[in-house]
């Protein structure tokens, strides 16, 4: 029995990878834009195959305080060790339009509010939308507040190395769209 535990301990020390052989390291951090925490959105670490890193991407939701934790296979398990191209999408916490209930499910007050909002939307359609938007699974639409180029790992020009141990990656985005990662 002692030999079994020794072998298990050595296997874990060699990389504590997942059952499919991926070597993951925990990554967490905070996203700031113009000096303030981003209060919603996502962070994506995509393995940079041009630098020899392969495997699935890791993603994390940005919390109200600007923090994120990356996940690849399980919640909070981290990202594949190696180089990653990074995408950051910060969203305004207030939706431009919210998903609506079916008319049968609405109270009288909800129906009147929805009717008034439809009138406002018709007026707003004549104005050009201000920047990029994202629609969530529930049908709500949010305005993207971070620079559009950062929403795609191939256009962001942000590359990060994930080491073999847990790390914190704080992301600071300037108004011009430049990114500094500590």
Would you spell out the secondary-structure blueprint of this structure?
Blueprint: H1 2-13, E1 24-25, E2 27-33, E3 36-37, E4 41-47, E5 58-61, E6 67-69, E7 79-80, E8 82-90, H2 108-124, E9 133-135, E10 141-143, E11 159-162, E12 167-168, E13 171-173, E14 179-181
Parallel strand pairs: 2-12, 2-13
Antiparallel strand pairs: 1-7, 2-3, 2-6, 4-5, 4-8, 8-11, 9-10, 13-14
Describe the fold and architecture:
With 182 residues, the protein is α+β, with helices and mostly antiparallel strands. The protein has two domains: 23-91 and 145-181, Carboxypeptidase-like, regulatory domain (Immunoglobulin-like); 95-143, no CATH class. It is built from two helices and 14 strands. The chain has helices at 2-13, 108-124, and strands at 24-25, 27-33, 36-37, 41-47, 58-61, 67-69, 79-80, 82-90, 133-135, 141-143, 159-162, 167-168, 171-173, 179-181. The strands form four sheets. Strands 2, 3, 6, 12, 13 and 14 form a six-stranded mixed beta sheet that branches. Strands 5-4-8-11 form a four-stranded antiparallel beta sheet, with no helix packed on it. The chain has a two-stranded antiparallel sheet with strand order 1-7. The radius of gyration is 21 Å and the shape is globular. It starts with a helix and ends with a strand.
């Amino acid at each position: 029995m002692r030999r079994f535990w020794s072998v298990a301990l050595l296997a874990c020390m060699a990389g504590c990878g997942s059952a499919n052989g991926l070597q993951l390291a925990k990554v967490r951090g905070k996203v700031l834009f113009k000096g303030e925490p981003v209060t919603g959105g996502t962070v994506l670490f995509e393995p940079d195959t041009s630098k020899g890193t392969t495997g699935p991407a890791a993603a994390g939701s940005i919390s109200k305080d600007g923090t994120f934790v990356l996940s690849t296979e399980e919640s909070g398990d981290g990202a594949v060790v190696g180089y990653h191209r990074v995408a950051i999408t910060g969203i305004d916490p207030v939706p431009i339009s919210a998903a609506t209930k079916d008319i049968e499910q609405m109270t009288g007050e909800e129906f009147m509010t929805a009717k008034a909002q439809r009138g406002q939307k018709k007026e707003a359609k004549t104005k050009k939308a201000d920047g990029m938007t994202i629609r969530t699974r529930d049908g709500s639409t949010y305005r993207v507040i971070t620079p559009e180029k950062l929403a795609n790992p191939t256009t962001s020009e942000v590359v990060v190395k994930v080491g073999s141990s847990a790390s914190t990656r704080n992301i600071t985005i300037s108004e011009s769209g430049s990114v500094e990662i500590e």
